[in-house]
Amino acid sequence: MRKDLHEANRLSWNAATVAHNSHKGDQAAFFRNGGSTLFPEELELLGDVAGRSLLHLQCNAGQDSLSLARLGADVTGVDISDEAIAFARRLSDESGIPARFEREDLFTWFEQAARDRRLFDCVFTSYGTICWLSDLDRWASGLAGVLKPGGRFAFIEFHPFAMVFNEQWQPHYDYFRSAPVEEDGVGDYVAQSGDGLTPGASEAGVVDFRNPHRSYEFYWGVGDVVSALIRAGLILERMVEFPYANGWRGFDGMRDIGGRRMAPPESMPQIPLMYGLVANQRSSAHVTVDHGVGGPDQDSR
Asked: In what order do the strands lie in the sheet with 255-256?
């Protein structure tokens, strides 16, 4: 586990979050007027959340969390970024949608939650999350430990196969990377994606953002993710792959095929750009919840 690199990423995300939110207009008004930032794929994986306690891991600035709370979920969002959590709390107050937001390194939060024996009906995480985590076994064990018996984990993420390519669709990165990758910092992907990630009124906001803090990413294949969840004792119910990416224009020539779903140029073959899965905690008749975070201590895969 590399909490030193997590801390570097916290600083990078603090800077980037200011730029990201500068493009999204009056978000409180967007929510007061009934807006939602959720895509259908997330809702299908989650199922009905009304009346259920829901933990949103790596919730960023809280827009998806508040969209879930509007559907009737009792939402707790957790994120490492001070700026993201401060913004989420303000947005909750200004929009009138109640939710709890807690700032902490995710692994530290899991340890605290285990000591306090906090349990949730659902755990949810989405889009560009696990690449910031240095230890998948601790992640999987931690989320399994806060799921109630019979609870549901819903996960949707950009497909690691797509991350083999650079922005020009040229094979550039190893799929089987085994060490943290140092980057120039979290970029302004919201500006890059245009209206793909701004369902409300889009604004120019910060121009030519350059992050003053470097960042470190960890690359996990689909097999890594599924195996970590199985080792944590969860039961895999469903897995699905998608030939488009929700909202994110991460590569040259991506086109909106409807509903802010971004696909490669028509000249390219279809490839997986996103995947999702559902895993369940065992029922009370069979489950033994380990409230320790557990898992091997490792720097990366």
From this structure: 245-246, 261-263, 255-256
pLDDT above 50 (res 18): yes
The string of pLDDT tens digits covering residues 229-243 is 999 999 999 999 999
Query: Whole-angstrom Cα distance, residue 178 to residue 172?
Result: 15
Q: Is 51 exposed, middle or buried (0-12, 13-18, 19+ CB in 10 A)?
A: exposed
Instruction: Single out the residue of 135, 150, 138 nearest to residue 52, CA to CA.
Output: 150
C-alpha span between 57 and 75 (Å, rounded): 10
Instruction: Show Cβ contacts of residue 4 under 8 Å, excluding neighbours closer than 6 positions.
Output: none
112: pLDDT strictly greater than 90: yes
Tell me the Ramachandran region of residue 128: left when phi exceeds 0, alpha when psi lies from -120 to 50, beta otherwise.
Answer: left
Residues 6+ apart with CB under 8 A from 269: none
User: What per-residue confidence (pLDDT) applies to 23?
Assistant: 83
The predicted model scores a pTM of 0.88
Report the alpha-carbon distance of residue 25 to residue 23 in Å, rounded: 6
Written as one string, the DSSP assignment of 111-169 is: HHHHHHT--EEEEEEESS-GGG-S-HHHHHHHHHHTEEEEEEEEEEEE-TTGGGB-TTS
Q: Taking the CB of residue 121, how many other CB atoms lie within 10 A of it?
A: 18
Tokens of 196: 């793909």
